[in-house]
Specification:
CATH topology of the largest domain: Sulfite Oxidase, Chain A, domain 2
Shape: elongated
CATH class of the largest domain: Alpha Beta
CATH superfamily of the largest domain: Oxidoreductase, molybdopterin-binding domain
Number of domains: 4
Length: 585
């Protein structure tokens, strides 16, 4: 029953996109996006998060350098509760267990840290929390008894500071450096791709290869002479249950990495894999920020005897509540840094209201650090932009000439919203952000590949450097609004007015096939467009004009071709798509 209630709650949140678009006029506060390897990308407000199950934890904010930033009681949502709603999925990957995944947590300032799957799902829920409220923990006695005011007053001030919520809290960390404030996104990633292909018939690994971030390899047939540790472990598998309490002996994984001078940071992780591709991930902070990290070992003995079955080495995590991150026949240890590569992405925001925003677009928005967006998109999609900085409005940077005059220019390689100098100046702004390691998203209307406004970008960036995320076009929304099989005769032609005027013979060929003609940007030249079509199609050909396709104010005006000018004479001359053809009958 509880799972059904949670599912119902999240379905309400997911399907309320239209309502959120109306609420864009209000201040919705911080928003959290969940994306990456998830079946259901999420976008949650603080109120949405507060509806989930809570955990209360004590938090000492003391950094690795010893600086004190306060003690607090924090209340929030376990990360696992949020991620379970997003339905993590690995279809098509090497094995179905999620133990090789990581969650990249990013804040509004662009900082990010890595949390391993095991820290969230193989430990108790309260060990990885997104805090939503805080209460300072004040000393019960006066500090004057042991410290002078110049010492304790600055420390007490830390208790009064306002925490940036939501805040990541990893209670197993001894140092709080991963405690990001103002968290805006969780992204599930697979840092190391599992090799595809047939698995070995016999699982065995006689050697262990340690690989640093620089690609340098160290091949071992025995563990180096480091401090040995013997660990008693409860072997409880998520799938196969209890398998005993063996003693494992070996060296700390952290010591092994130090021995080979392999370094990392809070964005790093260590992947341990077997010859069959089974891979387990441990975050760098998990190894080096908390006391349990030293107990994660690479074992070469079990119950006092050398390991022989499956291989000579195994990864053992004795403090995991499931043993699924253990790796038998461990053959490779690889350090990886999980840093976002800066990208330039053009995102189609859909042709109308926010309920037509695709899940892929939401995912791409979550990955972006800064935006390039017209004022219209900034306003209508404000709840989805998470307050990210907007570099500039490309339409405001456009040439200072009327839109109609821009449309009169034929759409060739030289026809752009910006002149060459404006394009170059705008490109420099984007390049500066990419150089800082920030991903830039250019937000466009509808489907960018159908009459998009992004084309100035290809004058200044190689096309292979630009990633495109398609959106729903006004063609899709308009076709649905008309409610007819517009492909009944097998042919649809999408065009603009300029092509009609320059190639009238094309219309004759289309009319002969009974094709449906769809004209974008037709309204400023509406009469001329209709006259061109009338020269090819019979007067009684059914016609429809869809105004503001995909928007709540969408309207469809149907008529015959010989009556369409009269039927639409007093209507707007911009946001309309014209459909003509016998299939509309």
């Amino acid at each position: 029953m509880r799972k059904l209630l949670i599912l119902a709650t999240i379905l309400v949140m997911i399907t309320s996109a239209a309502a959120m678009a109306v609420a864009a006029k209000n201040d919705l506060g911080p928003m959290l996006t969940v994306s990456g390897l998830v079946k259901q990308p999420l976008r949650l407000s603080m109120d949405d998060l507060k509806r989930l199950s809570w955990a209360r934890v004590k938090y000492n904010d003391i950094k690795d350098d010893g600086s004190f930033h306060g003690c607090f009681w924090l209340q929030g949502v376990p990360l696992r509760n949020i991620l379970e709603l997003a339905q993590i999925g690995k279809e098509g990957h090497g094995f179905n267990k999620m133990v090789d995944l990581a969650v990249v947590v990013k804040n509004a300032q662009g900082q990010q840290v890595t949390v391993s799957w095991g820290e969230i799902f193989h430990r108790n829920p309260g060990e990885a929390v997104l805090a939503l409220s805080s209460t300072p923990v004040r000393p019960k006695k006066n500090c004057k008894a042991c410290h002078q005011p110049d010492v304790y007053e600055d420390l007490l001030k830390q208790l009064d500071r306002k925490l940036g919520l939501p805040k990541l809290v990893m209670t197993s960390d001894f140092a709080s450096d991963r405690g990001l404030e103002n968290v805006v996104s969780l992204r599930v990633v697979e840092p190391v791709k599992v090799p595809q292909g047939p698995r070995p018939k016999t699982l065995y690994s006689p050697t262990l290869t340690v690989v640093g971030p620089d690609g340098k390899e160290h091949k071992l047939d025995k563990l180096p002479a480091l401090h040995r540790r013997t660990i008693l472990a409860n072997q409880v598998g998520e799938g196969k249950g209890f398998h005993g309490r063996p003693h494992f002996s070996g060296v700390s994984l952290a010591d092994l990495l130090k021995h080979f001078k392999i370094s990392g940071d809070d964005q790093s992780a260590v992947a341990v894999s077997a010859p069959d591709g089974y891979t387990s991930l441990v975050s760098w902070a998990e190894l080096f920020r908390g006391p349990l990290g030293g107990r994660i070992i690479v074992a070469d003995q079990m119950d006092g005897k050398p390991m022989k079955e499956n291989g000579r080495f195994a990864l053992i995590l004795p403090d995991d509540l499931w043993a699924d991150r253990w790796v038998k026949a461990a053959g490779k240890i690889e350090a990886v840094r999980i840093a976002n590569q800066p990208r330039l992405t053009v995102i189609g925001m859909g042709c109308g209201d926010s309920n037509l925003l695709t899940l892929e677009a939401l995912d791409a928005l979550a990955q972006a650090d800064v935006l390039v967006a017209p004022k219209d998109i900034q306003k209508r999609f404000a709840p989805f932009l998470a307050g990210k900085p907007v570099l500039f409005d490309p339409m405001a940077a456009a040439q200072k000439k009327p839109i109609k005059k821009q449309m009169e220019a034929h759409k060739d390689a030289k026809a752009r919203h910006m002149d060459q100098q404006q394009s170059a100046d705008s490109a420099e702004i984007i390049k500066a952000q990419l150089a800082k390691g920030k991903s830039v998203a250019v937000l466009d209307w509808g489907d960018p590949m159908v009459y998009g406004s992004w084309r100035w970008l290809k004058d200044v960036f190689p096309m292979e450097q630009i990633r495109f995320v398609s959106g729903l076009s006004a063609f899709n929304a308009g076709s649905a609004a008309i409610g007819r099989d517009i492909a009944c005769n097998g042919a649809i032609a999408i065009t603009d007015p300029f092509t009609l005027f320059k190639r009238p013979e094309m219309l004759g060929s289309l009319a002969a096939q009974g094709a449906t003609v769809v004209v974008f940007m037709a309204m400023p030249k509406f009469t001329q467009v209709i006259q061109a079509v009338q020269a090819a199609y019979p007067p009684d050909t059914p016609t429809a004009v869809v105004y503001r396709a995909g928007m709540q104010t969408q309207q469809v005006v149907k008529s015959r071709l010989d009556q369409v000018i009269e039927k639409n004479k007093d209507r707007e001359r911009w946001l309309g798509v014209v459909y003509v053809g016998p299939c509309l009958r």
